[in-house]
Design a protein that fits this description.
- This protein has one domain: Orthogonal Bundle (434 Repressor (Amino-terminal Domain)).
- Helix content is 46%, strand content 11%.
- The protein is built from 4 helices and 2 strands.
- It has a two-stranded antiparallel sheet.
Amino acid sequence: MVVVASRTVEVRKPRDIGDAIRAVREARGISQDELAKANAYDRFYLNGLESGRSTLYITRLLRTLKSLGITLSVTFDPGQPADGKGRADG
């Protein structure tokens, strides 16, 4: 049994988001293909997201938040089951 505590990471670049996604996905034993299909996009998009490849929208969002002095953080617990697992909410 592995116990993993929740982590909070300040998001400063797209890679920070990708690292959190990868950590939780791997801890839950979900493949990139499974997660991508559950959210109606292809594995190549998810691979890029996890690798920190930025999109225009992520770059603009992070730049806007920074210019307003807003800090964005993500909190995750790799061992915690997701609500609505396999559902896309947006």
